[in-house]
Write a structure and sequence with these properties.
37% of the residues lie in helices and 0% in strands. The chain has 78 residues and is mainly alpha-helical. The longest helix has 10 residues, at 49-58.
Amino acid sequence: MATATMTHEPAVLTVSIEDMSMLKDIKKAISMVRGVTKISLPRRKRLTGYEQARRDVEQGRVCSYDSLDDFIKEIENG
C-alpha cells in the first residue's frame, strides 16, 4: 500500500496600492488576518541621479530663470 505525502505551497497575494501613505496601515491589517505568516515588499529600484533628473523634467518639477541673479534672488527670498 502506497502512502501519499501532501505538501502545501503557501498562496501568494499581490496587492497594488496607489496611496503609499496607507502602506503601513494596510500591512498591519493584513497581518491580523488568521493564517497570514509573512508580509514582504519588493525592493524598489533606486534611481540614479540622471534617472531622477529625467523624471523631474517629465513631471514638470523644474524651474527656469532668465539669469543667475534672478535665481539668487529667488533663493534669498525663499
